[in-house]
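Box S2. Input/output pair 1.
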Amino acid sequence: VSDYAEPLRDPGFYFMNGPGNDLEGVAGQIAAGCNLVLFVTGNGSITNFPFVPTLKITTTTRRHQLLVHEMDINAGRYLDGEPMAALVEEGFETAIATASGRRTKGEHAGHSQVSLWRNWRQTDASHVAELKARPDPDGHPLKVELAGRNGAGHPVFEVFRLTGADGSISHGTERVGLVLPTSLCSAQIARLAADRLNEKHVGHAEGISRFVALAHTEGCGFGGESMYHLLHRTYRGYLTHPNVTTALLLEHGCEKVPNDVMRRQLENAGIPLTRFGWASVQLDGGIAKALDRIEAWFAATVGTLPPAALTAAGPGALSLAFVTEAPVGQATATVLARAAAAIVADGGTVLVPEGDELLANTAFRLPLLGRTPPHATLLYGQPVVHPGLHVVATESSHLVENVTGLAASGAHAVVAVVRDHPGQGHPLVPVIQVAEAPARGRLPSDDVDLFFEGDPAADESALWRLVKPVVEGDAVPVATAHGMVDFQLTRGLLGVTT
């Protein structure tokens, strides 16, 4: 028995400690030194490793024919009556040819993925019962002290006015087409689909600004009840995000959260299924056919979308998230508190991660909450129903994981205060990166959107001057402009690697 990813020292047969899951298991084997993968798949997993050829072997002829452009060897021919000896010889020759440089089906498709096996964050089970017993937040915002405050004197924003099925009014800052992969194994196909739709300008005449795919790394390698709930909730949050005008769910076909599960989750939440498109890499017949299906659905759907008109609104039209990567000074906390107060007083929403140091800063907390201690009002990825100041429950200190959850809750944009290095942007919502004056010179000026100078009044004005063009689509944060975007769901304290 060798450990996960432990390098092979001598020739021989090794049994590696690791998961049986597709990508996590293969990543460990290749890190150990494997240079060819023979991947047996019943449903037809389309996985390929980036720099080691992956020969995929199907177990039934019917499935092989369905995915003929993705699968390399049809072992189902044995069930059809062909001799095993002949199939073994043919398979061996295919392996030799592949090792000698012949490209696999996956290499021809240009498709590959990687996922590493992750440890459980708990070192033992002693606190599991306590963690599971925690009450869920009630979804109502914190009570903010707003006497004498309003949105007057702040920018007027051009936003889309949206009317819900129940007559409720909300606002969006963009009209996006979303391709949502329900697992890692469909994530890169979703990215290919979004790229193709953007290249063909599908929906531009109907007001769609762009198509986005949320490529992530959750697949068959996670376990734990809390992780299922987190994925269902976060997926629903993105599908109903105010900036998402139309959305399609893309499954691989054999993941733990397939399209049928999402249909049930959406029905239980009272969300009409007719709002969404559905595609399956395996059941639609492979990558090319899935891409064709996705394009056809969006092309047919955009013409039926209700029009959305731009309207002028104050800061109350915004849902803005604040994240700080390290403790900030009093002046910076004051700026963020004033901006938060203006948004909430005008009827908008402010989102802050539960573990953020900003909530411990008296210059931010006291003007907004007085002596009331902050507490989580939303679960990670839970969509906002009642506007106001919300604290989003999160057990992660990672910028990307926190931004992923905040965006699912409905944030139009994120203001992130960085200190030691620039962070990543987000594929759907803009992340505006701000640094304090002492970081000037340590952080490259062209990697940060704004440096605060320590004067709260001047810095607040500078922040609003930046937020306005970004949320209106007239400016792009530097991380997005550089292509430095990322998307990663947290596993929290109870998510388990299987």
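Box S3. Input/output pair 2.
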Amino acid sequence: MFCPLVKSIHRGVVMAVEEETADQFSNEQTLKTLKETEQRYRAMFENMKSGVVVCLPADSGRDFVIKDVNNSAERISRVHKDEAIGKSVLTMFSDIDTYGLFDCLKRVHNSGNSESLPALYYKDELRESWIHNFIYKLPNGEIVVIYDDIIDTRITAAELRASEERWKFALEGARDGVWDWNARTNEVFFSNQWKAMLGYGPSEIGSTLEEWSKRLHPDDIKQCYEDLEKHLRRESPFYENEH
């Protein structure tokens, strides 16, 4: 038969073991959760379409050392992660100060305020592109640069502008009047030649369908719209009408 003191000691030992087991289980769960979080972050980091570079401030914010680089940053910037990590951004991107990026890093470091830089043209001995940058500061002081290569968008926009200019020159060079109606927005493009054929200057006619319809002769309105509706119902391959 145990005495009360022995029973009390026994219960204390059991409780201590239980608490230690619970603490150990809690620590294991915390480590597991931390590991899973790190794995999710790494997967997201490496599979982002945008380039991401994480920097550590050095020399009291007068320089920045690359801590991490994702796969897209390697592709866009033509750098190898193993060669970039631990190097100054000025070493890996020799002209970064010329384009205002380095000053932006320092501003974000000093103020803590995020900045989005307008698209800029960047060129050095390794790379040439149009880049859009977003830079922010983490609570631990690290600076994160997220950027996208938008050179394809720039080229497409330039080609589109050139195409539009060629189209307009072709219109003005021809003697035909042209109007182009967006049925969804009710906006209409009237060529200058079309306006001139009606006796108007370039700025005297607006860009709505009413500018056309209000100039129709009353005797022609019904047939004009009947032919138009026939085309919109796909009963005719194109809209043709004399008025």
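Caption for Box S3: The chain is about 45% helix and 20% strand. The two ends are 119 Å apart (CA to CA).
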